[in-house]
Write a structure and sequence with these properties.
Layout (H helix, E strand, L loop, with lengths): L6 E4 L15 H14 L3 E4 L6 H12 L5 E7 L2 H9 L4 E7 L2 H8 L3 H18 L4 E7 L6 H14 L4 E6 L6 H15 L2 E6 L6 H10 L4 E4 L13 H11 L12 H12 L16 E2 L2 H9 L17 E2 L8 H10 L6 H15 L6 H14 L2
Parallel strand pairs: 1-2, 1-8, 2-3, 3-4, 4-5, 5-6, 6-7, 7-8, 9-10
Helix pairs in contact: 1-2, 1-10, 3-5, 5-6, 7-8, 8-9, 11-12, 13-14
Bound molecules: 3-hydroxy-3-carboxy-adipic acid and copper (II) ion (CU).
Length: 380
């Protein structure tokens, strides 16, 4: 499992631009790319230069920043698109063509033989023009393609010897982790090339599928900030980080984890979204402990109920106190944090009082503090 040597292809500036409310200005793209570069994303994928005039000039604008991250663009398997992409001076070109029966019928109308011939023409042209460009070939809708068609295409492309990487795309979010594992494993074994996985989240498996790909030997995973993309998007950057961190924090120490929250906030702001309450790492409730039993254990040792240390991400945990499930350990800990000397009997009385009150309406943190301060003064 190459988890010591995997790369993130951050596609907020390509797949992310396909999200319903995403339209970034040039300045915003530079800001997003700069933050992703600081974070440590190894590759940034940008919208095809053929999409619109500004898509083309923005690739140049990002290249001029001289980021550490390699800048890629994403094109159809088309010689004219390839010419325009090469013209931008981009570091890498991601070529994609549909292989599922639906895409062969409704998208380009080509047979598998014609797809292979087209790939040969386009990939040879790119390699001829630029021996150094990082070249990837991917099939769109891989998991609704016939397996025999897929293998014919991938093996033919691998044999051509032009590409650095093959991509697998779960375009409509239907794949299961087992299917992703099997296909990735097959391609790793048959081609020996680097393998990239791109997974949509229609059925909630985008993170699990990305991880299954890594387990099977994939070297590159596509993400976007907050998971934005077509429909409900793809593997979210923060979610992938959470998945890997909980297996072993060392898998993600190459990234500046404290920037995850800044990245999520930046994109939420530009897309007019709230960060979901249950988001990985940055959701408002991600580090709130509530029930008395949980609070007691977390106060003694946070790892009892926390697999992610919020401080590794520049965030804080919170113990919720003003509710009917509260416990006196949490109340006592708050009193201590306020520097108050209150005996245990009084703290137990206060806890009972909070529970009774909060059976009707939860108390705010400020209300709890007032109760505790009054008890503190009374005990002087
Ligand atoms: C799309 C294309 C794509 C391409 C993925 C890739 C997909 O917008 O439909 O090139 O790896 O999901 O198939 O994003
Ligand atoms: Cu996609």
């Amino acid at each position: 499992m190459p988890l010591d040597n995997y790369h993130i292809i951050e596609s907020t500036l390509r797949e992310g631009e396909q999200f319903s409310t995403a339209t970034f200005t040039t300045a915003q793209k530079i800001e997003i790319a700069a933050l992703l570069d600081d974070f440590g994303a190894e590759m940034l994928e940008m919208t095809s230069p053929c999409a619109s005039p500004r898509s083309r000039s923005d690739i140049r604008a990002i290249l001029e920043q001289g980021f550490n991250a390699r800048i890629l663009t994403h094109i159809r398997c088309d010689i004219n698109d390839a010419r325009i992409a090469l013209d931008t001076g981009v570091h890498g070109i991601d070529v994609v063509i549909g292989t599922s029966p639906k895409l062969m019928q409704h998208s380009h109308g080509m047979t598998i033989r014609q797809i292979i011939d087209r790939a040969a023409e386009v990939l040879a042209y790119i390699r001829e023009q630029s021996p150094d460009v990082i070249l990837r070939f991917s099939t769109e809708d891989s998991f609704r393609s016939r397996e025999s068609d897929l293998l014919r295409v991938y093996l033919a492309v691998a044999d051509m010897g032009y590409v650095n990487r093959l991509g697998i795309a779960d375009t409509v979010g239907v794949a299961t982790p087992t299917q992703v594992y099997r296909l990735t494993d097959e391609l790793v074994r048959l081609t020996g090339l680097d393998i990239e996985f791109h997974g949509h989240n229609d059925s909630g498996c985008a993170i699990a599928n990305a991880y299954a790909a890594l387990e099977a030997g994939a070297t590159h995973i596509d993400t976007t900030i907050l998971g934005i993309g077509e429909r409900n998007g793809i593997t979210p950057l923060g979610g992938l980080v959470a998945r890997l961190y909980t297996l072993n924090p060392a898998y993600v120490t190459k990234y500046r984890l404290e920037l995850v929250a800044d990245l999520d906030r930046l994109i939420a702001g530009y897309c007019g979204l709230d960060i979901p309450f249950n988001n990985y790492i940055t959701g408002s409730s991600a580090f709130i402990h509530k029930a008395g039993i949980h609070a007691k254990a977390v106060l003694a040792d946070p790892q009892t109920y926390e697999v992610i240390d919020p401080s590794d991400f520049g965030l804080n945990r919170e113990i919720a106190i003003g509710h009917h499930l509260t416990g006196w350990n949490a109340v006592r800990s708050r009193a201590e944090a306020l520097g108050l000397q209150i005996d245990n009997d009084t703290l137990r009385d206060i806890t009972r009082h909070i529970k009774t009150q909060a059976d009707n309406v939860a108390l705010s943190a400020a209300e709890i503090d007032t109760i505790l301060r009054q008890a503190g003064e009374a005990s002087l």
